[in-house]
Amino acid sequence: MAIPIKVLLVDDSGLMRLLVSDILKVDKGIDVIATANNGKDAAEKTLQLKPDVVVMDMNMGEYDGLYGIQKIMETAPTPIVILSAVGNANFPIIQKALNLGAVDYVNKPAQNNTKVKDVENELIQKIKIAATANISAKTINVPIKENNNSHTFSNLNYDIIVVGSSTGGPGALENLIKKLPDNMAIPILIAQHMPANFVPSFADRLNNLSPLNISMARKGDVLAPGRILIAPGSRNMIVEKNADNEIEIAFTSKTFKEFNYPSIDGLMLSVADVYKDRSIGIILTGMGKDGALGMHSIKLQGGYTIAQSSETCVVYGMPKVVIENGDAIATVPINEIGGFIVSCLS
Q: Is 193 a catalytic residue?
């Protein structure tokens, strides 16, 4: 019988600690070994009890979740899953928590504490994923400044780059994008598994970190060199040719086996269909198999496929499947992918 995942639950509300503990007790694979009521208490108990995963609230007075995450990662590095209502309205706080070392996040229902049961399955799943996370990958150096240099492109080999990512993806994408030149010669499409309300803020954050034009994709957006479009979290994004023979963003009602809203497979399959051998597919950190079908299709069409290397993945799931299927032409560390794809273009 598998040993249960030891969880430290951190929340300043006694009622919430009770509710979440009761939810987690439903799963025999999880054992709530202790609770804490603020970030300072959490850091001390993590050092003392050595849990497998910490579930952390964010708003907790003086010693809040950010304090707790920072101290835990400094003194007793442990996978942390954020469970907080702050993410419903303030993604930058969540992004800061991820940058400090948190693995993942779950949006706590904002209006009614008793509705936390609505996220039961998501929380349990993310705790189990976090327990397998490579938290040392969180410390990989992300460039402080973006690449403002231009690159000389000629005789381009490819016309599109499509990227899929999940757990650990926000930091990986930031790393990749910061390494791109300011005159990127082709468009980039991104499908990141992320709550729908986070995507606009995430796109704005990336746009502020790069000289390139980065935004959340909208129906009818025409793909253009140097433009980076991020799939909304509420629909499955695809590409198609319009009446003027331009390639633009569209959305499909079709759902896919591995993941939806957004589906990496759905986006990559459409890219392979439209761009054929002129496409580059990249699969980054994340749990599961989403993207495996899409990467296979891109490779089958003669496109180029890249998987993030195991040692730099927070969760080595999606890239592992692609590599084991024989559908990764190259395996590259995250801090080298940006420069690598530029070298592939010409």
A: yes
